[in-house]
Design a protein that fits this description.
- The chain is mainly α.
- Helices cover 40% and strands 9% of the residues.
- The longest helix has 16 residues.
- The strands form 2 sheets. Strands 1-2 form a two-stranded antiparallel ribbon. A two-stranded parallel sheet has the order 3-4.
- The chain contains 4 helices and 4 strands, in the order ββααβααβ.
- It has a domain of 74 residues.
- The radius of gyration is 19 Å and the shape is globular.
- It comes from Diaporthe ampelina.
- One of its GO terms (biological process) is DNA recombination.
- Belongs to the SLX4 family.
């Protein structure tokens, strides 16, 4: 398939053409994402209905506060599942988006803390 670009040049696209997506995770992010998934899904279920686990919150479509989930992961949950490192809130946000998990930052656009979710 040959396409023309706005500059007048031709672009040849075939099965050998490498197309990279901006949203595709890197190899390092993919490893981290699989460990985050394992940490969230293998954590014990809660016995208190008022305080659901992270996995239960996600299944109920409760919005996840990125800073809180990141802190929980870095407090030993990633180590528990075999990941040697820490996650950044930005990486956790990308993981949430890749899993269609509703997430938000604790602060709003003006830099103030949210009053309600």
């Amino acid at each position: 398939m040959i396409l023309t670009s706005p500059g007048g040049g031709a672009v040849d696209i075939n099965e050998d053409t490498e197309i990279s997506l901006h949203l595709s995770p890197t190899a390092q992010q993919s490893a981290l994402f699989s460990h985050i998934t394992r940490a969230v899904t293998s954590a014990p279920r809660t016995t208190d209905p008022e305080n659901p686990s992270w996995h239960e919150k996600m299944l109920m479509y409760d919005p996840v506060i990125l800073e809180d989930l990141t802190a929980w992961l870095n407090e030993g949950q990633l180590t528990r599942v075999g990941y040697d490192g820490e996650a950044s809130p930005t990486d956790v946000k990308k993981w949430c988006e890749s899993k269609s998990v509703c997430c938000l930052w604790r602060g709003n656009r003006r830099g103030k803390e949210r009053k309600r979710l």
